[in-house]
User: Which sequence fits this backbone?
């Protein structure tokens, strides 16, 4: 079982995937442009969070504390 700090990084990466999927879905069925702003902001936030989480994952790997078995 991974350490809690690594498990949380994995959770953030999964959450950002969900955010991106929701942004795509919302954007595809939005009734007006203001919804586009909402889903665009969600997508931008997801990318920024994903980049931060991937950076932290890399740091943990470099430090030798990454204990997550990935598929």
Assistant:
């Amino acid at each position: 079982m991974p350490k809690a700090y690594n498990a949380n990084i994995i959770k953030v990466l999964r959450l950002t995937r969900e955010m991106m999927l929701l942004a795509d879905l919302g954007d595809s069925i939005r009734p007006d442009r203001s919804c586009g702003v909402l889903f665009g902001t969600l997508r931008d936030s997801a990318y920024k969070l994903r980049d931060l989480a991937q950076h932290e994952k890399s740091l943990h790997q470099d430090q030798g504390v990454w204990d997550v078995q990935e598929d």
Observations:
- The chain has a mean pLDDT of 95.
